[in-house]
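Memo to structure team: turn this sequence into C-alpha cells by end of day. - J.P.
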Amino acid sequence: MKSLEDLKKLREEALQQVKLRKNRDGVRVVVGMATCGISAGARPVLMTIIDEVSKRSLENVQVTQTGCIGVCRLEPIVEVYKGEEKVTYVDIDADKAKRIVEEHIVNGKIVTEYTIGAYEK
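Reply from structure team:
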C-alpha cells in the first residue's frame, strides 16, 4: 500500500465482500471440505455440483466450501441455503449431487430421502 487511494480501494473491496456474504438472494451451496469430508469423498461431490451449475448456466447460485460441519459420520455433507431456509443433505456422492442440483436447486423440490432428517430415521 503506497497511498491513501490504495487504502480506500482496499476498503471498498472489503465492503463488497461483506455485502456479498450478507446477500440472501439466490442459492448458496456449501460443501463440507474438512479432512473428514474429503476422506469420505467430498471433493468429487464439490466438483460435480460446480460442473452441474456451470453446465446449466445457473447465475444466481454460489457454490462454496467450508470446514467441518460437525457430523463427521454423515460426510460428505452438502447444505443448500435459499433465503433463510437451509437444507442439510448427508452421505452424498456425485450422482446424488447431480440430483440435488436438478431437483432442489433448479426445480425447488427438496430431495427428502438425502436429508439429515430422513437419514436419522
